[in-house]
Every structure is written in C-alpha cells, then in structure tokens.
From TrEMBL:
NCBIfam families: rRNA maturation RNase YbeY (TIGR00043). It is found in: Cytoplasm. Its cofactor is Zn(2+). Binds 1 zinc ion. PANTHER family: ENDORIBONUCLEASE YBEY, CHLOROPLASTIC. The keyword Kinase does not apply. Gene3D superfamilies: Metalloproteases ('zincins'), catalytic domain. Single strand-specific metallo-endoribonuclease involved in late-stage 70S ribosome quality control and in maturation of the 3' terminus of the 16S rRNA. Belongs to the endoribonuclease YbeY family. Zn(2+) binds at residues 122, 126, 132. This is Endoribonuclease YbeY.
C-alpha cells in the first residue's frame, strides 16, 4: 500500500513517528487484506488546523483527534475490468492532531506511541468502511481495532513514553 505523509506540525512530528505511521498502516492493511495497489494519505496537523477542518466539514467548532475522509470513487465503474484491476484503490485521507494525541496519551496514562497507533488504526478502519455510529457497529469496530493494535504490539499498558 502506498502511504503519503504530510507534516503540518512545524517540527513536532518526529521521524520515528513517521516511520511508525508507515509500519503500522502497512500492518493494518495486511490484517484487512487490503490490496497492495491501495493508496492513502495521513496529514499531521496542530489543533488550530484540525479545528478549522472539523468546523468546515463537520460543522463542529472544536479541535478533534482524527478526521477521516474516505474516497468513494464511482467514476471508474464504466471502465473495462482489465483497466480497473490496474488502477490503485484510493482509500482516502486521515488528518491527525499531534496536540490531541499528546494530550489524550497524558490523560489516559499511556504512551504517545500507543495513542498515535490508536488514532491511525481508528481512522484507517473508517477509511475501509467500518463505523461506530450505531451500537451494533461500535463493538465490532473497536474489537478489530484492539486486535490489530495488540497483534502489532501496542497494548493498552504500553507505557513507554517517547
């Protein structure tokens, strides 16, 4: 899977966090059997930028931790199957606030790495059609999220701060 990372954090995002982003999302893609042709982006931002995105697209005027924009492209429906098979599957875009990741890790008393992983997998699952708006969806999505994080090695008690 191709993952593009954009850093709008003015130097807050570390190279280790960028690498962790790539490694964890590749792992999650393997767990869900996502095509190697798939593409997505992750943009790391600070609270003011994610607040503006949240306000513009969700009509909520406050900073949040992660926002996902899934791409549902129906324009390729009329193409021949051979051509469709060669086109990359565009999953969508994640926006993650590094400020919220830090604050929530402190509040929940676990590592920044664990909180970042949680946000990445949570957003990734949304890009792949998982949701938690209805009570019957909620359990399945969070169970899968915990399974992926645990298999990757980011457990709830991973308290090794960066």
């Amino acid at each position: 899977m191709e993952i593009m990372i954009y850093d709008h954090t003015d130097g807050v995002l570390t190279k280790a966090q960028e690498q962790e982003t790539l490694d964890l999302l590749q792992f999650a893609a393997q767990q869900l059997s996502i095509s190697e042709q798939a593409e997505m982006s992750v943009t790391y931002v600070r609270n003011p930028e994610i607040r503006e995105i949240n306000k513009e697209y969700r009509n909520i005027d406050r900073a949040t931790d992660v926002i996902s924009f899934a791409i549902e492209d129906d324009e390729t429906l009329d193409l021949p199957a051979e051509i469709k098979a060669e086109l990359p599957e565009e999953l969508g875009d994640l926006f993650i606030s590094v400020d919220k990741v830090r604050d929530q890790a402190l509040f929940l008393d676990h590592s920044i790495e664990r909180e970042l992983g949680y946000m990445l997998v949570h957003g990734f699952l949304h890009l792949n059609g998982y949701d938690h708006e209805r009570p019957d969806d909620n359990g399945a999505m969070f169970k899968l999220q915990d399974e992926i994080l645990t298999a990757y090695g980011l457990t709830r008690d991973a308290n090794n701060e960066e």
